[in-house]
Design goal:
The protein contains eight helices and no strands. With about 260 residues, the chain is mostly helical. The chain is flat and about 60 Å long. The two termini are about 20 Å apart.
Length: about 260
């Protein structure tokens, strides 16, 4: 039953993707609240799914890789709902919806929803560590989205081929400011998650510790390059895309609650 909530949620995100594709193919992109409405509805159903699943497992619903990916998709939508209005929410939604849709589609189709034989005993620090770290991933995902928007606008400026979407993009300085804020938000959350991982009183596999610290160093280096101005804004935007792709690929190895599965 809970999976149907996720299916309908995925449908709403897919509707936002289809609307964007039609607009881009027609070379006429107009501001609309449709994407925001679809994401809001999808987010509501995501929240309902996590609530139902959480009551079923007796703890935060991040007990297997399926739930981790759904929680990550929810975190991306949550971050968008929080920061979207400040950065042309309808257009950011056009870039955010495909990310959430693909994450949830993968979760629904991949055989990763492994059942648990019994309800699990909650560990407060472990729950905080896992949930706050995945929410940080959501902020990093939106920084990636803002990075793509930055690169798209800069390319159109350089080639002098301005499509209708160009006139709905925020100015480059505004986008760069959004990238910086999202990086700081995600980095602060990820740092809290990393520290709390050592307070769980649970065995910590060395490989997972190394990979988690590697992601922390990667994003720390991007922020350092931004404030020392040793990395150009365009490269910061590109690094946000590369860093999130790398972090997402490592999520297979950093399943925070795998040892409870």
């Amino acid at each position: 039953m809970d999976r149907w909530l996720l299916v309908f949620s995925t449908f709403f995100f897919f509707a936002a993707v289809v609307r964007t594709v039609i607009a881009l193919r027609g070379r006429v992109f107009r501001r609309s609240r449709f994407n925001f409405a679809m994401i809001a509805l999808g987010f509501g159903l995501q929240t309902a799914f996590l609530s139902v699943r959480g009551h079923a497992v007796g703890r935060c619903p991040i007990t297997n890789l399926f739930e981790v990916f759904v929680f990550l998709a929810w975190s991306v939508a949550l971050t968008y709902m929080l920061v979207g209005p400040g950065y042309r929410l309808s257009l950011m939604g056009a870039f955010t919806a495909p990310v959430v849709f693909l994450l949830q589609l993968f979760a629904l189709l991949a055989p990763i929803d492994t059942p648990h034989p019994s309800r699990l005993t909650p560990n407060t620090w472990l729950e905080f560590h896992a949930s706050i770290s995945i929410i940080a991933y959501g902020a990093f995902a939106l920084a990636c989205v803002a990075g793509v928007m930055y690169l798209l606008q800069e390319r159109q400026l350089k080639t002098h081929e301005l499509s209708s979407i160009f006139y709905h993009l925020p100015p480059l300085p505004t986008l760069f400011s959004a990238i910086t804020r999202l990086l700081w938000f995600g980095f602060a959350l990820y740092t809290a998650g990393l520290i709390s991982g050592f307070l769980t009183h649970e065995p910590l596999p060395r490989t997972k510790i190394v990979l988690a610290i590697a992601i922390w160093i990667l994003y720390g280096a991007i922020l350092q390059g931004r404030y020392l101005r040793s990395i150009a804004p365009r490269r910061i935007a590109a690094l946000c895309v590369v860093a999130f792709a790398a972090a997402l690929s490592l999520l297979w190895s950093i399943e925070f609650v795998a040892h409870h599965a």
